[in-house]
């Protein structure tokens, strides 16, 4: 579904991603873990070109999105993204947050988008907040809305950039539950996270990144039970 | 009771040097505002002041938005891709404009415009309003640019990640939030603009201060005409500040918790 070839990214002289090649298959739940500064967020943000790769190519469903001529807006419409800091639009109600993109990109008419929003809000149990503003919600509620907002575009893949890192501990669960449900429905997901429990339970594959490289990857049970790389062992011993 | 008669009587006393403090106060006040229906001149001046402010504001906002859009679009070009040449040239022009306007005094700009560039024009008020508009544009541009830059990049990233194009992201997400953030600064700029219209009088533009100075020349008494002008400016600014407060409260609707 997403094919990454020889992806490198540097900020100035700082090489953040070093020649990464990776394949993400439909239906996979890829969990990316690693210490901070390892390049995992940058890797994720390259996938929908929020960061422009310095070199290398990324192909999404057979179309090369790193091609300067590619219609990046059209491609992004099929890739949902959830941010660490939610990034809800504070000047709009929750309903408007959700329906803005589907309506403006021509995916749906306003009524249809409203209906979709209602269905999705019911699913995350936040229908009563439809006419509230983001400032009136808790962190966990905001993040669930952010997921719903991305889902309203009916994306083929969902990218999560540390979705629970900015949350109070008691709110992490409600967000992870929504993500688990999404995973069970077969959504293709790429998740950068520090939630090892989630990686073990939901992930179909775990990537360990450090220093701009993918040092190790495996199916989660084997990955956590029997890490091969020294750096992975050290990291896991600190976080588990 | 006829004020004119009282005025004549008091004035006669004053010329003889026998008037009390209150009597001479009344005479000076009468001369400044009432004699010969002079209050109409103040009103006319206020009208022109407001028209000049509105014109300068319109010019300033249009110029400011244009410059701010060019400058931010230039600065936000994606790194690693070839820079747009046209945008580079426009950006340079905008930078020169902002530097020159912000680097020279308003008064000098008005004098240059009135006595050098438009020296043959008789329409001093319009020349003055144009100068103020050009001047204000530079400041408004920086205010807007500051507002656009102050917004968390996550906002535009969220918009773009949903597949919205640049224009829609700006229109629905960035600009409404930036506008709310810059409103106090814009209000400030508007107040400065309103008061700076007084400088149009140095090239003969017939706004409030021009008339006030005329009356001073007629009556040889500066205090009341100038205090009157000051009070009128103060009232205008207070009315505007009140309106601005109302608008801010309305925009703050989404902040309630």
The total tally of domains of chain B equals 1
Question: What is the annotated CATH architecture of chain B?
Answer: Orthogonal Bundle
Strand count, sense and barrel status of the largest sheet of chain B are:
none
Helix content of chain B: over 70%
Mean pLDDT of chain A: 94
Can you count the helices of chain A? 9
Oligomer description: heterodimer
Q: Which H/E pattern describes the elements of chain A? A: EEEHEEHEHHHEHEHEEHH
| Helical content band of chain A | 25-40%
Calculate the terminal CA-CA distance of chain A, rounded to whole Å. Answer: 31 Å
Give the C-level CATH assignment of chain B.
Mainly Alpha
Q: How many beta-strand elements of chain B?
A: 0
Kindly name the structural category of chain A.
alpha/beta
* Uncertain spans of chain A: none
Structural Rg of chain A? 18 Å
Largest sheet of chain A: 6 strands, mixed
Question: Which pair of chains has the greatest number of interface residues, and how are they split between the two chains?
Answer: A-B, 34 and 27 residues
Average pLDDT metric of chain B: 91
**What is the first-to-last residue Cα distance of chain B?**
60 Å
Briefly note the structural class of the backbone of chain B.
mainly alpha
């Amino acid at each position: 579904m997403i094919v990454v070839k020889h992806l490198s990214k540097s900020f100035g002289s700082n090489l953040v991603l070093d020649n990464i090649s990776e394949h993400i298959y439909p239906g996979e739940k890829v969990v990316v873990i690693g210490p901070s500064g390892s390049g995992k967020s940058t890797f994720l943000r390259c996938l929908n070109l929020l960061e422009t790769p310095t070199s290398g190519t990324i192909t999404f469903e057979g179309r090369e999105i790193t091609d300067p001529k590619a219609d990046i807006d059209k491609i992004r419409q099929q890739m949902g993204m959830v941010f660490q800091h939610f990034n809800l639009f504070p000047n709009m109600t929750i309903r408007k947050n959700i329906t803005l993109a589907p309506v403006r990109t021509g995916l749906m008419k306003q009524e249809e988008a409203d209906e979709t929003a209602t269905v999705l809000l019911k699913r995350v149990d936040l229908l009563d907040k439809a006419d509230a503003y983001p400032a009136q919600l808790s962190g966990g509620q905001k993040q669930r809305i952010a997921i719903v907002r991305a889902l309203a575009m009916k994306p083929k893949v969902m990218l999560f950039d540390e979705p629970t890192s900015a949350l109070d501990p008691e709110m992490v669960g409600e967000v992870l539950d929504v993500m688990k449900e999404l995973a069970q429905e077969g959504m293709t997901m790429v998740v950068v996270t520090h939630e090892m429990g989630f990686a073990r339970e939901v992930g179909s594959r775990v990537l360990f990144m450090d220093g701009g490289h993918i040092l190790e990857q495996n199916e989660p049970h084997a990955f956590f039970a029997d890490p091969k790389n020294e750096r992975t062992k050290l990291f896991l011993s600190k976080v588990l | 009771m006829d004020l004119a008669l009282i005025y004549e009587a008091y004035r006669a006393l004053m010329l003889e040097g026998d008037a009390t403090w209150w009597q001479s106060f009344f005479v000076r006040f009468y001369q400044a505002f009432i004699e010969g229906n002079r209050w109409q001149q103040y009103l006319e001046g206020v009208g022109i002041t407001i028209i000049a402010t509105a014109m300068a504001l319109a010019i300033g906002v249009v110029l400011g938005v244009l410059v701010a859009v060019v400058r931010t679009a230039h600065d936000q070009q994606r790194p690693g891709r070839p820079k747009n040449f046209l945008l580079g040239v426009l950006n340079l022009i905008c930078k020169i404009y902002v530097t020159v306007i912000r680097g020279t005094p308003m008064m000098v700009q008005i004098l240059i415009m009135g006595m050098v560039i438009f020296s043959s024009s008789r329409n001093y008020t319009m020349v003055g309003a144009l100068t103020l508009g050009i001047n204000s544009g530079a400041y408004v541009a920086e205010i807007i640019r500051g507002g656009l830059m102050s917004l968390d990049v996550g906002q535009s990233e969220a918009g773009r990640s949903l597949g919205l194009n640049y224009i829609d992201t700006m229109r629905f997400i960035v600009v409404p939030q930036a506008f709310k953030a810059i409103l106090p600064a814009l209000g400030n700029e508007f107040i400065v603009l309103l008061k700076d219209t007084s400088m149009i009088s140095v090239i003969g533009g017939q706004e409030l201060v021009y008339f006030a100075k005329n009356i001073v020349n007629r009556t040889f008494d500066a205090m009341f005409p100038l205090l009157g002008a000051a009070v009128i400016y103060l009232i205008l600014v207070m009315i505007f500040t009140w309106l601005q407060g109302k608008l801010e409260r309305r925009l703050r609707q989404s902040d309630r918790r």
